[in-house]
Amino acid sequence: MMPARLILNADDFGLTLGINRAIAELHSAGALTSATLMANGPAFDDAIRIARAQPTLGIGCHIVLTDGIPLSPPETIPTLLGPDRKSFRASLTDFFAAVLIGKVSAADIAREALAQITRIQQQGISLTHIDTHKHTHILPRVARPLLDVAVRAGIPAIRNPFEPRWSIALGKSRILRRLQLRSLRFLQPRFLAMPQIRSCRVVTTNGTLGISATGNLNSTTLRAILDAMPGGTWELVCHPGYNDRDLDAVTTRLRATRDIERAALLVAFFQTSQQQSHPPLPQLINYRDAAQLSGTTR
């Protein structure tokens, strides 16, 4: 039987000092193995400080292509910009629509993604993987240039942005959200067939857990997902933090739930790591470990 391995990844590293603090505390407690850093986040410098101080925390790049400010000069990425011609499209729906009708250039995606990756690498951080804000690389036209950039930048892994059906059912999300996630699964074969993934130049997981539970990832839901998890290598995506004044100053729909997720992770992994868990917890790894287990090293 294939062993169960789990990457515990927190998104939005670098967004606020409170999110950074939660990530540092959770990793120190053994309740987080990985985090994806926003290169254009307001608390970027503090996140870099934490990443340097905690070298066992896997650090990925949380590539932002919607709802934020690009690092590239606006005139070099015109197809990624919203009406103000300075920032990204604020609406995920608008971004998806623009991609689907061919209004977003692959070259612009690659240019901005490389700028974000490079900013982190220039701080001496060895990136373990990439993923995207709001899972925009679920679309093949976004995933394709990002995989090209990952190879160029020496990054060994990428998030599999598709959630398995059994995990979607446990996420306690609204019916429409569950239907959306299930319907998007038809794109997964195209993602897995991309040459960089098929050849294992860039590795990925069996899937990502907790997407449907975003905003509802409390202790009960997390335990249900862990109990149902089969063998294989999976990622659990989470958004822990502190609901503080810094969070009030940024655009995010996840506020009080960040405290709830932080507490749920501590209950599931810190407390149970001090005693035998029933059923046993999966082996906790990060994306660097996943790449090494697959034989991919950079």
Give the secondary structure arrangement, pairings included.
Elements: E1 4-13, H1 17-28, E2 34-37, H2 44-53, E3 58-63, H3 92-100, H4 106-121, E4 130-132, H5 140-153, H6 165-170, H7 175-184, H8 188-192, H9 195-198, E5 208-209, H10 219-228, E6 232-238, H11 245-248, H12 256-273, E7 283-285, H13 287-294
Parallel strand pairs: 1-2, 1-6, 1-7, 2-3, 3-4, 5-6
Helix pairs in contact: 4-5, 10-12
Which features characterize this protein?
TIM Barrel, seven-stranded parallel sheet
Describe this structure in words.
This protein has 298 residues and is α/β, with parallel strands linked by helices. It has a single domain (4-294), classed as Alpha-Beta Barrel (TIM Barrel), CATH 3.20.20.370. The chain contains 13 helices and 7 strands. Strands 1, 2, 3, 4, 5, 6 and 7 form a 7-stranded parallel sheet that branches. The longest helix has 18 residues, at 256-273. It starts with a strand and ends with a helix. The model has no long low-confidence stretch (mean pLDDT 93).
